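Translate sequence into structure tokens.
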Amino acid sequence: MISRIFIACLFLGMYSTGSLLGCKWIVKDQDDINHQFHVYNNRALGFLDMMVSITNTTKDAEIEHTVAFPNQLYHQKSKATDEDKLAFIVQILEEVAALFEEDHSSASWEENTVENFLNIVNKQAEELRSCIGSHSYTTQKVQRRTEMYFKRLSNEILKKNGYSAEAWETIRNITEDHLSQCAFLVNSLGNAH
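Result follows.
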């Protein structure tokens, strides 16, 4: 009898480490109605707001580009399993972090603000990755499309415009949209179709 209980507990423990049951970042904090993800996401958005170019404080500072926001990918993932949603969010966060590691010296951002933003985005990715079972990854096709999208952002907006302050303002605004979409996906956890 005790061995059956032990085996049941062991199975439950192994299952919950790779599922959302064991994910501290998704379960609501008892002292706060916000999820840890949302707390950190709001901090990241706050740092992005602080990074608005001092000389270009309006959206007029953005440059024209042909890189369409991947709404279809977000819509597709909104209907995926919870773990696939999280795997997609982790990839988005990692791609955003990689983008902001590029040469942003022409942007009038304080380095401390950029570092704080990157620390938060990397922390989100790290914590959410711990919520994903080893068997759960976004499909290679979606993963590749996401990689190519961020590569186009880098090539067609940043490199093509010499990493200018205007190019970075465009990237900053696009990143705000990505963080907002990630928050919507987190809100939809438990609602897979």
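Note: Residues 2-187 form a domain with the Growth Hormone; Chain: A; fold (CATH 1.20.1250.10).
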